[in-house]
Design brief:
binds flavin-adenine dinucleotide; 3 domains; alpha+beta; Uridine Diphospho-n-acetylenolpyruvylglucosamine Reductase, domain 2; about 30% strand; four-stranded mixed beta sheet; Uridine Diphospho-n-acetylenolpyruvylglucosamine Reductase, domain 3; 8 helices; Uridine Diphospho-n-acetylenolpyruvylglucosamine Reductase, domain 1
Length: about 350
């Protein structure tokens, strides 16, 4: 077990923010995790951060505590019935590698979630979602280690209280649990979900004759690669803000004033607005100040062109929030975890 001191976190976050962690250690099993936590908490109780792929984090300052880099590995088929397979993946597995594993084995359900960066362990944190599918649609259960009770707890689908980019781990139990593994319930017979976004169009362009989970995965990869900046080239954490919801009557008023405003009504009397559209209307798309910017193709994505600090990106997000509030009286919420 190696605890390193004063480590740059630049290689460990997709924004490429150059901050330092006071201490840094990987853990490859629960015993190592327990030992590291015991060592650490016997000290002055400085903060602990569980780090996956660092693709949903903005570091705004040096981290004055212990960063625990999740290196738990392994994927296994744990159960099977007539229609489903139950596949348990360790939290440190790369999410996209897990998706490719499922496609190779012909396990259906996660193909629409191809190419999302990060690790399996973070997938339930914000109920990751894309192209009409969310983790909650394929989630069976997870095991997590309670840092203070020193116990492993099993969470069912209901326990996780998944919502739009939300779960109990993001707010209610924030920083209390280390997710160790997640078991997904996948379909033996695929139920294709191609109606969302440009998947059908892309499949046509690919000249696909027979739809399969592999084709859908490839279509999603193609679309995402053409639309989203690659963090290896331009630092970013995907969508920086959530799409906000407003009550239907408020949406009516907004549409009276801004007739081209897109909105998607849900069943509960709310309309979901497109945060990217709101931001674009405020003139931010393509904006750049020093190395912090709002992406030229995707207003929802804030970027680091090289040497931006986390504070510069955060300040830009604050300016964006305020301008959207001033123009539309709509409050945006950050999706990215601010550290
Ligand atoms: C280009 C790009 C595109 C993206 N597209 C999407 C998308 O389509 N849909 C989507 O939902 N997200 C998207 N994201 C966001 C991100 O990829 C996901 O949120 C991903 O699940 C984060 O995983 P991670 O391992 O990198 O988490 P990290 O950034 O390392 O951590 C995120 C949070 O989870 C906590 N955490 C991580 N692992 C654990 C664990 N094992 N136990 C307890 N807490 C933990 C961390 O402490 C932190 O608070 C995108 C990001 C990028 C850069």
């Amino acid at each position: 077990m190696l605890i390193q001191e004063n480590i740059s976190l630049k290689p460990y976050n997709t924004f490429g923010i150059d901050v330092f962690a006071k201490s840094f250690a990987p853990f490859a099993n629960v015993n190592e995790l327990q030992e590291l936590l015991a060592l650490h908490t016997s000290n002055l109780k400085p903060p602990t951060l569980i780090l996956g792929g660092g693709s949903n984090i903005l570091f705004t300052k040096n981290f004055d505590g212990l960063v625990l880099k999740n290196a738990l590995k392994g994927i296994e088929l744990v159960q099977e019935d007539a229609d489903h397979v139950y596949v348990k993946a360790a939290a440190g597995e790369q999410w996209h590698s897990f998706v490719l594993h499922c496609i190779d084995k012909n396990y259906a359900g996660v193909e629409n979630l191809s190419l999302i960066p990060g690790n399996v362990g973070a997938s339930p944190m914000q109920n990751i979602g894309a192209y009409g599918v969310e983790i909650k649609d394929v989630f069976h259960e997870l095991e997590a280690y309670h840092i203070h009770d020193k116990k492993v707890v099993t969470f069912s689908l209901n326990d996780c209280a998944f919502g739009y980019r939300e779960s109990v781990f993001k707010k209610k139990y924030k920083d209390e649990f280390v997710i160790l593994n997640v078991t997904y319930k996948l379909n033996k017979q695929p139920i294709f979900n191609t109606s969302y976004g440009a998947i059908e169009q892309e499949l046509e362009q690919m000249q696909v004759k027979e739809v399969s989970i592999r084709n859908i995965s490839q279509a999603v990869i193609n679309i995402r690669s053409s639309k989203l900046p690659n963090p290896k080239e331009i630092g970013n954490a995907g969508s920086f803000f959530k799409n906000p919801k407003v009550e239907n009557p408020k949406f009516q008023l907004l549409q009276d004033e801004f007739p081209s405003m897109p909105g998607y009504a849900d069943k509960d009397g709310y309309t979901k607005l497109a945060a990217g559209w709101l931001i674009e209307q405020c003139g931010w798309k393509g904006f750049r100040k020093n190395d912090a910017g709002c992406h030229a193709k995707q207003a929802l994505v804030l970027v680091n062109y090289g040497h931006a600090t986390g504070k510069e990106i955060y300040d830009l997000s604050e300016d964006i929030l305020q301008s959207v509030k001033a123009k539309f009286d709509v409050q945006l919420e950050r999706e990215v975890n601010i550290i």
